[in-house]
Design a protein that fits this description.
About 30% of the residues lie in helices and about 25% in strands. The chain is α+β, with helices and mostly antiparallel strands. It is globular and about 90 Å long. The termini are far apart.
């Protein structure tokens, strides 16, 4: 017999009754039924019920051990009575009568329970992540992540992509988020950077002639935590293709994403639906108008409309003056709210104020009759014109976001989501994908008072060099695109600008000289001077995909060892102080408060 197990804890069934077996695992739960002790023994695969009565030699030891102790049990498989069969357990038809037990590792009192779904503070969960990962939901999430990545790899290879690994130590880039810097010991005063993404390397692979590349790539960015991004590091499905148009990129990656989401749509019996191929294309400007952002949740049927002109010169002086000053009014339908009380509408206004806005106007409607101060001042004809423009039904109310264009548009987008959630309009059992296309190449930076890149400086402008030479920069569109699912941006991508003369001109419009480009992007611009194919790609986020498939609201729940919101690894104690010897080897001197902290770390008596 094997030293630790003849079966795993999910393997036994009624056909094994009468067999002598050996199982090893953790004590998941203990139940004492007056002289008969039941233990749920858990391993990676599942759970088996162990039973010991007064005649079992194992009983004294089993009574003494704490939950989460690691045991090896020798025993006999017995059928459960029909009344005690557990249909929710793979081993629910049997139990193992314990005849001998070995304690492989005794557990101390737990800082958080493994059994059950009770929520615990983040700092405790992260400090004892090895315990947190034993919990059924988190363990299942991590296994889902592994299965998703395996599926992605198979599907990418089937699409003709080849996996390559790009460098982790690279050069710092002035674009994007803050880099994580790594000091060089052999080059004093110089630093490597951890890659924010393999962007330049994957483009250089295309220049090198590899045609279709992919990688499950680790990326590092020194930025604040968000619900949909871990601080410090994350993983993405990075890919690039040569001799392709934007539609070619879509045609290559859509079957991969659609296939993965269909494969796991029924994970844990959830029976979710995935939007059909091809995914919908939504121009950026339409997305900003109709949905209030560039990552729309298409499960929400509410569409925003610009009703500014319908208030121009109207009886509602406040909105009329807003429009006359050049600002805007956006309308957000509230379907089927005739039965809602005034409190529902007032609560939405309070919510908007809590989000930092001046407020959210509204008009109620029941049986075709509008109510509320805005309706009373705007008049029946004016309100009917709004109802016709929005396609309102007789019992649909409407909210209004008014003010400066950027603020009003943002409030409208947030209100659309809020109303959809409050009215239960968002189907949790659907995955709705779309591409956001036709991003503007440039935008005006109000703070710097100049034109700058709006999205990706390395994308090809639509119309190429001629467009850069002849059009207003703010009217130029780029071959840039985002893939969005259920309101979550999975990635940005682009057809790349592979021609040096176009790149120099694009950067010139944004205020960069030819020398700036040559200095900051030397590796790529030099490579493009030796023959570069047209190419493009994208990089959907692995963590975000798994988060959606697992139905989790926070990305921390699908990452093995996440940091907290302050980018600290509480379990391993990172970041941590290092020794003076290490700093001297790297030619680094720490100053200020950090130096005092270092002194105290080296000598606790230091002041």
């Amino acid at each position: 017999m094997h030293a630790y197990r003849t079966h795993n804890c999910a393997a036994l069934d009624a056909d094994d009754a009468g067999e002598t077996v050996r199982l090893s695992g953790w004590v998941h739960r203990k139940r004492d039924h007056g002289g008969v002790l039941f233990i749920d023994l858990r391993d990676h695969y599942g759970t088996t019920q162990i039973v010991a009565d007064a005649d079992s030699p194992a009983l004294p030891t089993l009574e003494a051990v704490r939950v989460e102790s690691v045991l090896t049990i020798d025993g006999t498989v017995k059928r459960r009575s029909e009344a005690t069969v557990n249909p929710n357990l793979a081993t629910g038809e049997i139990e193992v009568y314990a005849r001998a037990v070995t304690v492989q590792s005794a557990a101390q009192e737990l800082p958080l329970p493994v059994f059950g779904d009770a929520e615990y503070p983040e700092d405790i969960r992260l400090r004892y992540r090895f315990l947190d990962l034993r919990r059924e939901r988190i363990h299942a999430n991590i296994m889902l992540r592994s299965q998703v990545i395996a599926s992605i790899r198979q599907r990418m290879i089937a699409q003709g992509f080849t996996e390559f690994q790009t460098p982790i130590l690279t050069a710092s880039s002035p674009e994007g988020a803050r880099d994580y810097l790594v000091p060089s010991r052999v080059h004093p005063g110089k630093f490597y950077a951890l890659p924010q993404a393999p962007q330049m390397f994957k483009q250089l692979l295309m220049v090198a002639g590899f045609d279709r590349y992919f990688q499950i790539a680790p990326c590092f960015r020194d930025e604040d935590a968000r619900a949909d991004r871990s601080p410090g590091e994350f993983y993405q499905l990075d890919f690039e293709m040569s001799f392709v148009t934007q539609e070619d990129v879509f045609a290559a990656i859509e079957p991969v994403l659609h296939g993965v989401f269909e494969e796991f749509a029924d994970w844990q019996g959830r029976g979710r639906q995935v939007s059909a191929l091809p995914f919908r294309r939504v121009p950026y400007r339409e997305s900003m108008l109709r949905y209030g952002n560039d990552k729309p949740d298409l499960r929400n049927p509410i569409l925003i409309s610009d009703v500014s002109e319908l208030f121009r010169g109207s009886g509602f002086g406040r909105f009329a003056s807003i429009v006359e000053s050049g600002d805007i009014v956006r309308a957000i339908p509230a379907p089927g709210t005739a039965d809602k009380s005034r409190k529902f509408f007032d609560d939405m206004n309070s919510w908007a104020q809590g989000e930092g806005f001046a407020g959210l106007g509204y008009a109620t409607r029941k049986g075709g009759l509008f109510g509320g101060p805005i309706a009373n001042n705007h008049g029946p004809e004016g309100m009917q014109a709004i109802a016709d423009a929005l396609g309102l039904a007789p019992d649909d109310g409407v909210f209004f976001a008014a003010g400066k264009p950027a603020q009003a548009a943002r409030l409208a987008g947030l209100a659309r989501t809020r109303v959809g959630e409050q009215l239960g309009l968002i189907d949790p059992n659907r995955f709705e994908f779309c591409w956001i296309v036709d991003f503007p190449m440039f935008e005006y930076d109000e703070d710097a008072k100049r034109v700058d890149f709006s999205h990706n400086p390395f994308s090809m402008p639509q119309g190429e060099l001629e467009t850069l030479e002849t059009k207003d920069p703010l009217d130029i569109l780029a071959y840039q695109y985002d893939i969005v699912c259920n309101g979550v941006e999975l990635s940005s991508g682009a057809i790349r600008n592979h021609r040096p003369e176009i790149m120099y001109r694009a950067f010139e419009i944004a205020g960069y000289s030819r020398e700036d480009v040559d200095k900051n992007f030397a590796g790529m611009i030099n490579a493009f001077k030796y023959g570069a194919p047209p190419h493009g790609g994208s990089a959907p986020g692995i963590d975000r995909m798994v988060m959606l498939l697992a139905g989790e609201p926070n990305i921390r729940e699908v990452v093995l060892f996440p940091m907290n919101q302050r980018a600290e690894d509480l379990m391993m104690g990172a970041p941590s102080a290092v020794s003076l010897k290490q700093l001297r080897e790297l030619n680094i001197r720490v100053t200020g408060e950090a130096a005092k902290d270092l002194d105290r770390a080296v000598d606790p008596k230091a002041g």
